[in-house]
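Researcher: We're teaching a course module on how sequence relates to structure. For the next exercise, students receive a sequence and then see the predicted structure as tokens, so they can try to spot secondary structure elements on their own. Here is the exercise chain.
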Amino acid sequence: MILLMPALGCYSGSFFDKTCEQMGNCSTTDPTTTGPTTGTSTTSGTESETESTTEGEAPRDGFRIHEMALIDPYLYTDQLGGDCDEVSFFVNAVLLPSELAKGEVNIVLQFPEFEPGVAQDQLMYIHRGNCDIDNLACWADGPFFISFTQDVEEGKCRPPETPGIHPDNLPKLNDPEGPCFSTAKGSLFVQLFEGLDPIQLNEARLLATYDDFHDPQELIDGIISGFVTEETARSVVLNYEGLPLTLWSLIQGGEACVPPDMPAPDTDVVELEGVPTNGVWLYLNFSAIRVSWSLDPPDMGTDTDTDTDTDTDSGTDTDAGTDTDTDTGTDTDPSTTGTT
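Model: And here is the predicted structure for the students to work with:
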């Protein structure tokens, strides 16, 4: 089990409601000045700080999730003016690419302990960010959170069990190979696009392949998976063209319409904290691209200050120009200027 229960993504503020403020697990520690807050000793934090300062990489670049696709379950509705239509293609071809391209939803992953070419157990920071998409630059937008990952240099990172997935969808699910990483099971909050409430994934995993183990520029063949309870699925509402649709109303075995081929229900029962719980497994493919990362937004006031200084200097030069024989030092002596 991951050290912190919502270790794959617990954020504060309007981006992720019902998350770490309510669960008491937000980290507000600045990773550039102290070690990660993991319940370890103060000594560990000091060592982390020293290492980051020595390498001059605090914080290091991050990886922004820029592509995502829903692999399972299928989604069905008869509320869009037609029969009982399978709408997963529309979600993957239109909604998700549009939201990620706009930069409204930004999840940035960091590996502060990454060592080029070295397979290890390491920390992963999960940040909510604001991003300049064109310039591949992101900066923090609230507290970060911490997870633990395990690298695999050769072999597979996807676990052999993929509970709840439709057999037809298993070949579509990414299967990251080494060099890759995977997290232990935890709880993840993920927002797929603006207007959709955050979805809590239980028993969640996040895994992906480094495109280059020595100097990664992308995380490819990624998977986010987890179990969504019926209670959560009923509370997640997508307002599409003024029509409210709950996630549960799109799930076979939930409250979705039934198409003519009568597919098997996608719902399942999973024991969570000792309680059998109804819900549905969710599987997403993703990839992430390397971005520059900062805790602070770009300084938008620098140019304005420079322009102001330039205007002031320009005015001074004009005054100095009224007496071309006067040394430039005259401008700095108010009494001499007054005499002239």
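Model: If you want an answer key for the exercise: Helices lie at 20-23, 42-55, 88-102, 230-235, 302-321, 334-339. The longest helix spans residues 302-321.
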